[in-house]
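User: Can you predict the 3D structure for this chain?
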Amino acid sequence: MCWRKRPRRSVLAIITCAATYIAVVNLLAFYSMVRSYNSPVSWIQRYGHMYMGQPDTDNWTCKGLRYSTISLPSTALVSFPGSGNTWIRHVIQQATGMATGSAYTDKSLKRDGFPGEGQTNGSVIAVKTHVWGQEERARYVRAILLIRDPFEALLSEFNRRHGGHKGYAASVNLEKSWYDYILETAGEWYDLYHDWLTFDGPVHVVMYENLRVNPSAEVDRLMKFLGVTLTHKEKFCVMKNYEGNYRRKGKRMPVTEIYTEYMTYMINNYKRKLAQELGHFLNKSEIRIS
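Assistant: Here is the predicted structure, written as structure tokens:
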């Protein structure tokens, strides 16, 4: 045992015992953290302070992130991949202080401020989904549709597939995969929204571009739909931390340079069809998707 070491080795024995003790304590702490990481409620209770808004602001978080203690209406947060779903989740979390869920489990998002990944029950205020169809719609009682121009959304999703959440696809990816990717997925952009416009419950439509150019008004409309009232101080904090830290930065390839004439014709047809359906759904004579 450590305390039975000979006197001439007492200093070395003390150092050895101390190092062993520290190592054991750290291992136990790490084990406890890993276990709690798999439990979203425990994760928020113990590590919720790690959730931050944009790092270069004075106020990194508007409200302590938590799960609802009462069952909330199951709300679908629907979008085509690459349409800013993670961004609007950040805005919702900043405004409400409640975790948003997801039909998927993205470990990188779970680490970086979205502990509700994989949660679809009433403890989260909205659930991210890219799925359509009767079975998926039946899971929810209300829906938020986030719509982005397909030219931008398709490119953003291609970048995510080949460059991660914050990176860009390399030129070699564009050369090898871009054409087939567009032919396979462009129609899915239209199919998803066309399907969700048949949803029986309340639907709130958010146009991505409106969220960019007039965020204050869009946040007000979104909070009204969710049944959340913000004070002036809370609204100020949301606007200050609006951008979040999950957006691509740096130079990107112009959209006009990568879509062929045929791709452009095909995608514009989908845009026109959805714009007409949206206009009818929202009872407006003209809807612009840009």
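Confidence is low (pLDDT under 50) at residues 1-6, 29-60. The chain has one domain: 75-288.
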